[in-house]
Amino acid sequence: MPMCIPSKVVKLRANGIGTLTGRLFVCTAERIPPSKLVDTTGAGDAFIGAVLYALCMNMPPEQMLPFAATVAAAGCKELGARTGLPKRTDRRLALFLGQTGSSAKSNGECLPSGMQITKLHSSAKVDTGTCPNN
């Protein structure tokens, strides 16, 4: 399972450019055995789509980045850019979604890059049957 380790707040300065203040997140990707790796087409798109959606749901970076890595890795285990993307009821996403079993309905609508996830964070106020703020 991917994980994420945040740093303390740091400042980066460049002469003539300015200062950037923030935290650095060092995250791992999911390890996929060569025998299960089928196609990496769309993995980057799936990762970015998961990050953008998680940002909209106010998911913290420590949870968002491993979630996005998990979504991207799932897509690499099937042929094509969308075939392997997980549905929100997928057990691999339960930790990130705060769900157990089949506690959520899935309609798979309105998400970028074919993602079939409509609720990402347990504190997010989203109607799981519709798309937020379309």
Q: Roughly what is the average pLDDT, rounded to an integer?
A: 76
Strand content: 5-15%
Q: What's the arrangement of strands in the largest beta sheet?
A: 1-4
Helix content: 10-25%
Computed Rg: 16 Å
Helix/strand class: alpha+beta
The biggest sheet amounts to:
2 strands, antiparallel
Number of strands: 4
Shape: elongated
Keywords summarizing the entry:
alpha+beta; two-stranded antiparallel sheet; 25% helix; elongated; disordered C terminus
Question: In a nutshell, what does this entry contain?
Answer:
The protein has 134 residues and is α+β, with helices and mostly antiparallel strands. The protein is built from three helices and four strands, in the order ββββααα. α1 (43-56) runs antiparallel to α2 (61-75).
